[in-house]
Design goal:
Elements: H1 3-26, H2 35-53, H3 67-91, H4 94-100, H5 104-115, H6 122-141, H7 152-177, H8 182-206, H9 215-240, H10 245-250
Helix pairs in contact: 1-4, 1-9, 2-3, 2-8, 2-9, 3-7, 3-8, 5-6, 5-7, 6-7
Length: 255
């Protein structure tokens, strides 16, 4: 199988995992772990896993001129993107999250045109307009009241912020992907993510009563750490080695 086909399979796998994540993560928060504490668990767990397997890749050093981009990618993809998504999921519903994250490909196309001068066809422009109208309608008229979704409009707005920062991450990390092995990037991106997230997430992480967690809750947490964070991020990064950011982001529609 060609590397391009493997990259497509990786993107499909990541999108499938993300789709499952919407419901599983919602079932854990906030009763057993609060949103920001969950992100701390994700980042710490993924960091341990990526450093554990890093010996399987080449021994590379990050060039000094690339550290700024790497840290900003970590800020976008391993901090803000995750924090606002899980907070939004806590406030809104899995259905809304799965719908609104599909604005990511739209934002990727727009930012790609601005940041790296990719051409936008008239068909893409029409698609962008339709997608944005749908997102605005869902935010403004998503007034359903649910006990497990205390502030749906705010949660929906946070999903859009998530889409923006994930789109930024996909575009900006592409240059690093072309230069470094995925294992090298992931171990440093997530390690940086620990320090970026700690000021806002460590407190909630320390509140978790780990010894009293039910087995099914621990299983869901394990899926989010191993599947949604470790595997999905690695799959997306591998996909970026062969595909454009706009192509990888389009697989989000599978969710």
């Amino acid at each position: 199988m060609s590397k391009r086909n493997l990259a497509i399979l990786a993107a499909v796998g990541a999108a499938t995992i993300y789709g499952i994540n919407h419901t599983l993560a919602k079932g854990v928060m906030p009763m057993y772990i609060k949103p920001f504490g969950f992100i701390m668990l994700r980042v710490v767990g993924a960091t341990i896993l990526f450093w554990a397997i890093s010996f399987l890749g080449p021994r590379e050093k990050i060039d000094r001129e690339d550290w700024g981009r790497l840290l900003f990618c970590s800020f976008c993809g391993m901090a803000v993107n995750m924090l606002v998504f899980f907070k939004g999921l806590d406030l809104s519903t899995p259905i809304n999250s799965s719908v609104l994250v599909t604005t990511t490909p739209i934002i990727v196309v727009v930012l790609s045109a601005i940041l790296i001068r990719e051409k936008v066809s008239w068909r893409k422009a029409i698609g962008i307009g339709i997608g944005l109208v749908g997102a605005v309608v869902l935010i403004l008229y998503g007034q359903e009241i649910r006990q497990d979704a205390p502030n749906i409009p705010l949660g929906n707005s946070l999903f859009l912020v998530n889409a923006l920062f994930f789109a930024l991450y996909l575009i900006l990390v592409k240059k690093l992907v072309d230069k470094y092995h995925p294992f090298t990037l992931m171990k440093w991106l997530f390690l940086a993510g620990i320090f970026i997230n700690a000021p806002v997430a460590l407190g909630e992480f320390l509140e978790v009563e780990w010894t009293s967690l039910p087995v099914d809750v621990m299983a869901k947490m394990a899926f989010v750490v191993i599947g949604t964070t470790f595997c999905a991020y690695l799959f997306n990064l591998f996909a970026l080695t062969q595909l454009k950011a706009s192509t990888v982001s389009s697989f989000i529609y599978l969710q």
